[in-house]
Amino acid sequence: MQVGRADLVLENRRGSYTLLWSDGRESRRYVLGLTDRGHLSVELRAPRLPMACTPRDTLTLVGGARLRGYVTIPLVPTVVWRKRPDTPEVVMELMPEDLHGLWDEERGHSFRVAVNWMTRFPFASGAALCVVPLFLKNTGEQLVCPASIDLKLQDAELAELRGTLVVRPRRITWGGDLDEVGVGASHQ
Known about the structure:
The chain is mostly beta strands. 0% of the residues lie in helices and 51% in strands. It has no helices and 17 strands. The protein has strands spanning 2-3, 6-13, 16-22, 27-32, 39-45, 51-55, 66-74, 76-82, 88-93, 100-104, 108-115, 129-138, 149-151, 159-161, 164-166, 170-174, 186-187. The strands form four sheets. Strands 7, 12, 14, 15, 16 and 17 form a six-stranded mixed β-sheet that branches. A hairpin with a 3-residue loop joins strand 10 (100-104) and strand 11 (108-115). The radius of gyration is 20 Å and the shape is elongated.
């Protein structure tokens, strides 16, 4: 099975299963004990933790300005075991290399991910990505240049559109007098 740019191979040898994962640069091997009374599947899921999305481009909004565009977020290929359709058990998450764990005193655990700002809806690439439409607005008088944009995605909101997975648009507003870039941002 191909998931994004990685290949997954499940082998059965003498009553045990081996799951081989390779993206062409790195490979991993997992040994699984499975029964005949269940179903193993791979699902693309949203990252469980909030994300600090760091734009690769410098985003600048002057007072009263708006900015619309798209970013893509890596999804997590998740191996799921089901004894019955209503009892999913997560066996493992195959974390993409683009998601980096982060600890912050204010936010706790989160992921950091570098994102490209796109002004057009991206073409379907077959990669394990989710498109997030963003509407940024600066209601204040001072210039805002966000170092990161905080996002949280949920599995339930993933939907297919134009051959790729998307979520509902995020509206982020900065306003008032900011001593620090990004402080005072409201997310809807």
